[in-house]
Amino acid sequence: MLSRAVRPALKAGAAASVRPVAAPAATYATLREIEQRLKSISNIEKITKTMKIVASTKLNRAQRAMTESRQYGKTSNNVFEQAETKPLESEGKKTLIVVSGSDKGLCGGIHSGLSKQVRRMLVETPDADLVVLGEKCKAQLSRSNSKNLVLSFSNVGKNIPTFAEAQAIADQISLLPGDYASIKIVYNKFVNATSYEATPIEAFSEEAIKESPNFSAFEIDDEVLTNFREYSLSNTLFWALAEGHACEISARRNAMDNASKNAGDMIGKYQILYNRTRQAVITGELVEIITGASASEE
Amino acid sequence: MAFAWKASGLTYNKYLSVAARVVRRSLKDDKRLAAERRGEMDLKMAKWKNGKQGEHQNVADANAASMAEAAGSPAS
């Protein structure tokens, strides 16, 4: 009856060679576990691959919309450059920070990059008010700076941003009760397909436009100035929205690319582990049969 | 008081979007569908007070309400 005494020890040895922590009787279970793990990883890989493909097809359209809207925003900023408008540095008036994020996650660090930039700006101007576009940034900023929040928008960035959206947001911002010396829009600047940068752009207040050194070059009535400010705010917002959207899509494409790669790596590793474990089990069984046979021969 | 739309409480952006909608609707059918997609707006918003989130509301409704309010008061 030597074999029965030896069997658990053998099994333990077989299991230990693969996974030292595994309990002796768990060899078969781990095999099944590994199989399940493999299956779930390959399912995840399928999903991330599909998301990557979707993002790459969307990326072209988003980039085209971005270059168009960037042109649009630059043209509108041209006026301020000609007029040499500078942000007013008056004491006592508040700053408004508009954060142009989006609703969806799974796209790398673009939302946390925005939030970090905003937090840095809030250290300099602690009493600034916040307007947040998109659920993700809202969740991040409401945890740390919920006192500063005045408005939040959701449903942003489902599709390519339209000018109507930018107008509606600009309307709500200009209807805010506070009188802001400067409005800063924080958005992700598209550097190239793999990198982006959280950047603030300035949308000027009426006084700032009026005080600009070269203002007299334009013949603008005071009444029209309000309209112009509202319009330029929505121009800048549109620009920020479109560029942020393109960044998000390209970041998602990269994130999903990396995720699929990692899943591929894991699948390779688990496949090897699975095969080894299977062989170890078979070897264990063979040893059992042989010892059993030699025991009954005696 | 140069602008009639200003007196009725509209902002310049609203005025623009109304004008744009009219233009889009007067296009021919095939082009209108593509153009009207550019005019869609389905945002939701919430006001925050003292670190607490207020109620969710549709931006279009909120805009309309605040403009109706502005129409009542003498236009600035």
From TrEMBL, chain A:
Q: Keywords of this protein's UniProt record, alphabetized?
A: ATP synthesis, CF(1), Hydrogen ion transport, Ion transport, Membrane, Mitochondrion, Mitochondrion inner membrane, Transport
Task: Please give the InterPro entries that the UniProt record associates with this protein.
Answer: ATP_synth_F1_ATPase_gsu (IPR035968), ATP_synth_F1_gsu (IPR000131), ATP_synth_F1_gsu_CS (IPR023632)
What is the membrane topology listed in the Swiss-Prot or TrEMBL record? Peripheral membrane protein
Which cellular components does GO assign to this protein?
A: mitochondrial inner membrane; proton-transporting ATP synthase complex
What GO molecular function terms would the record report? proton-transporting ATP synthase activity, rotational mechanism
Mainly resides where? mitochondrion
Known partners and oligomeric status: F-type ATPases have 2 components, CF(1) - the catalytic core - and CF(0) - the membrane proton channel. CF(1) and CF(0) have multiple subunits.
* Family membership noted in the UniProt record: Belongs to the ATPase gamma chain family.
Q: What is this protein called?
A: ATP synthase subunit gamma
What organism is this sequence from? Lachnellula arida
Q: Which gene encodes it?
A: ATP3
From TrEMBL, chain B:
Signal peptide position in this chain? none
Q: May I have one GO cellular component term?
A: proton-transporting ATP synthase complex
Molecular function per GO: proton-transporting ATP synthase activity, rotational mechanism
Query: Which terms does the UniProt entry file under GO BP?
Result: proton motive force-driven mitochondrial ATP synthesis
The family assignment reads:
Belongs to the eukaryotic ATPase epsilon family.
What is this protein called in UniProt?
Protein stunted
**Annotated source species:** Lachnellula arida
- List the gene name: sun
